[in-house]
Amino acid sequence: MTQVLDRPVKPAPQVSGAERTARRRALLEWIAIHSLGVAAALFFTLPFVFVFLTSLMSDTQALSRDLIPHTWEWGNYRKVFDTPGFLTWWKNTLIYAGLGTVLTVVSSVPVAYALAKFRFRGRNLSLMLVISMMMLPPQVIIIPMYLFWAKQLDLSGTLWPLVIPLAFGDAFSIFLLRQFLMTIPNEYVDAAKVDGCGDLRTLLRVVLPMAKPGIAAVALFQFFNAWNDYFGPQIYASENPGAWTLSYGLESFKGAHHTDWNLTMAATVLVMAPVILVFFFAQKAFVEGVTLTGVKG
After folding, report:
1. Could you read off the pLDDT of 116-153 as tens digits, one per residue?
2. Where are the transmembrane segments (predicted)?
3. Which of 66, 106, 235, 249 is most buried, taking the most CB atoms under 10 A from its CB?
């Protein structure tokens, strides 16, 4: 025991000035990066918090400078739901966004698969046509399209002029899916064909299970685009209040309650909430699908 106590103790390792400087620099970089992250999070989050808090204020307090409700008026949301036509706007928006998303995915996947995995004359030209369609603003062709749907097919005042074209594919969805399918090795497709699978069976049994992140990204893009679409319903459904969507109906609601900012904010929260919830639960597949589309060109 005495020998152990008498053994000399090793001195603590000395930290050089360069190491202290490196650690201090790393700490400052960590603080700076996280400070910027917190600032960016607050920049994007605070407007939603402001809208939510205002939606729970009384009529008079919503016109004041107060930021926190004195009394939490949850009945504002009930008043919004009781507004004539609001539930109809919800139904129309769900039909437009839900049916449009399904039609877009079903029609875009086969085209993207052909552009990604088939070898045929004119494939590059077909891809260039798809890309050119992405660059064409909808406002350029809105007049002939409106004359076709309204005068020729008599579908004005409905959402069908917006839903039916989605059954024939969407240029952005085709391009995004094609880029994702390019990341799937051709060996899987060749192995399936060696086992006797045709092109359709290979697509359904081999390619689609591997392409779920890309399909999820396309579906979310289309769902968000349809849910927030204001231009299309304004052109085709404005003359029929029974065909209005939430985006267009919210403008009418705001005009009718231009001094009731609490009710306007409550309606805004109800319009935004489904999109936020959908993205919150599907963000992993969405980010993965968007990220992998640029792996291979």
Report:
1. 888 888 888 988 988 888 888 888 888 899 999 988 88
2. 30-53, 94-115, 127-147, 159-181, 202-224, 261-282
3. 249
HEC string of 245-293 equals: CHHHHHHHHHHHCCCCHHHHHHHHHHHHHHHHHHHHHHHHHHHHHHHHC
Pick 294 or 52 by higher pLDDT: 52
More confident residue, 210 or 281: 210
Structure tokens at 42: 């607050």
Residue 93 contacts residue 247 (beta carbons within 8 Å) = yes
DSSP collapsed to 3 states, 102-121 = HHHHHHHHHHHHHHHHCCCC
16, 39, 104, 229 from 51: Cα distances, Å: 53, 19, 33, 21
For residue range 40-94, list pLDDT tens digits in order.
888 888 888 988 999 899 888 888 888 888 888 898 899 888 888 889 999 999 9
Contact 157, 236 (CB under 8 A): yes
Q: How deeply is 100 buried, as exposed, middle or buried, from its count of CB atoms within 10 A (0-12, 13-18, 19+)?
A: buried
Asked if 92 and 244 count as a contact pair (C-beta separation under 8 A), the reply is yes
Query: Which of 115, 111, 101 has its CA nearest to residue 218?
Result: 101
